[in-house]
Amino acid sequence: MDKWRFAVPAGVTDWAIAMGVAALLLGTGLSGPHPAGGRELLGSALLAVGGLALAARRRAPLVVLAVTGLSAVGYLGAGFEVLAVSYLVAVYGAVRAGHRTVTLAASLGLLAVLHLTALVSHDGPTREIVTQARHTLEIAWLIAAFAAGEAVRQAERRADEAEHTREETARRRADEERLRIARELHDSLTHQISVIKVQSEVAVHVARRRGEQVPEALLAIQEAGREASRELRATLEALRDDDTAPPPGLDHIPNLVKRFRTTGLETTLTIEGQPHAVPAAVGRTAYRIVQESLTNVARHAAATAASVLIDYRPGALAIRVDDNGKATLHPAPTPGLGLLGMRERVTALGGRLRTEPRSTGGFTVQAELPTNGAS
Q1: What does pTM read for this prediction?
Q2: What is the 3-state secondary structure (H, E, C) of the chain?
Q3: What is the pLDDT of residues 105-138, one digit of tens each?
C-alpha cells in the first residue's frame, strides 16, 4: 500500500489552508451583522488579507503574525465581529517555529489593542463592547493555539533527537564492525606476512654467509614484508585511536618510490609547487594513490619505468603517476578493486580522479585533492 502514497508539497498545503481560512472569515463576516458601503468593502478586504497571509507562515511566521493581528484590528474597527481564526493559526505557526516569547507578547498586546479599538469604534454599553472584542479573539482559543504549537514543536524536536540518536548508533556500530574486520585481517595476515619476512631474511642471510650475490627480487621481498608488517600494525593502532604510529602520508612517498626501484622498476619522483602542510586525510590519500598505482604498474603493466608527480597548488594537491607499460586506448581496462578503492578515497575528500591509458602508450592516474576543509 505504501507505493500508492504521495506527499503533498508544503506550499500547496499552505495555500489550501490560507484560502480555506480566508473563505471561512469572509463567509462568517458577511453572513452575520456587518456594516454597509465602504466599511463593508474595507472589512471584507482585511478578512481576505488575514486569511491569505497564512500562505507564508512557514517562511516568515512573525511577519504573518503581525499581518493577521493588524487585519483583526482593522476589520473589528470596520464593524465585523468575526473570530480571528487567521491570527490563531499564525500563533500556532509562530510557536511551532520557536518564537514563543514574541508570540506571547504580541498576543497580549493584541488583546489590549482590540479592546481599545472596540471602545473607540463602537457605541453602546461597555460590557457589550468588551464582548465584541472578546468575540474577535477568545482567550481560550488563543491558549489552545499556543499549546498546540508548543506540543508540535516539542514532538518535532524529540523526533529530530531520536533520528540523530539512530544515526549515531548506526555510525558507532559501523565503526565497531570496521574495527572488528580490521583486527581479523590483521590477525590472519600477520602470520603469513611474518612467515614471508622470516623466510626472505633467512635466505638473504644464508646467501651473504656464502658470499653469494643476493638477488634484487629477494631484497625487494624482504623489504616488502617489513613494510607490510609495519603498515598492518600502524593501521590497527590508528583504528584504536593510537597516535603513536600515524599512518603513512606525503613524507613517506620518497621511501615508497625507492622501494619500487629495488624491484627493477625505474621510478622517478618529481615535486612541483611550493610544498606546504596539507590535512592528514589528504596526505594519507595521496600516499595510497601512489602506492596502489605503482603496485598496479609492477604487477600488471609490464612496464620498465614509472614517474610520480606531486604538485602543490593553491587550495589543492595534484598527484600523477604515469608508466610506459602496454596499456592501449582500446579496449579500456576494467577497473579493479584497487582503482575502485582509490576513487572512493578521492570522492570522500571532494576531489577528482582520472585513470586511463595514455595516447603514447602506458597508463596514467591523475588525482586532484582539495586541501581546504579536508580533515
Answers
A1: 0.47
A2: CHHHCCCCCHHHHHHHHHHHHHHHHHHHHHHCCCCCCHHHHHHHHHHHHHHHHHHHCCCCHHHHHHHHHHHHHHHHHHCCCCCCHHHHHHHHHHHHCCCHHHHHHHHHHHHHHHHHHHHHHCCCCHHHHHHHHHHHCCHHHHHHHHHHHHHHHHHHHHHHHHHHHHHHHHHHHHHHHHHHHHHHHHHHHHHHHHHHHHHHHHHHHHHHHCCCCCCHHHHHHHHHHHHHHHHHHHHHHHHCCCCCCCCCCHHHHHHHHHHHHCCCCEEEEEEECCCCCCCHHHHHHHHHHHHHHHHHHHHHHCCCEEEEEEEEECCEEEEEEEECCCCCCCCCCCCCHHHHHHHHHHHHCCCEEEEEECCCCCEEEEEEEECCCCC
A3: 998 898 888 888 877 776 666 666 666 666 677 7
Q: Look at residue 125 in the predicted model and tell me its pLDDT.
A: 64
**Residue 86 contacts residue 51 (beta carbons within 8 Å):** yes
Residue in the block written with cell 600502524: 234
Given the C-alpha cell 498576543, which residue does it identify? 107
Residue 184 has pLDDT above 90, yes or no: no
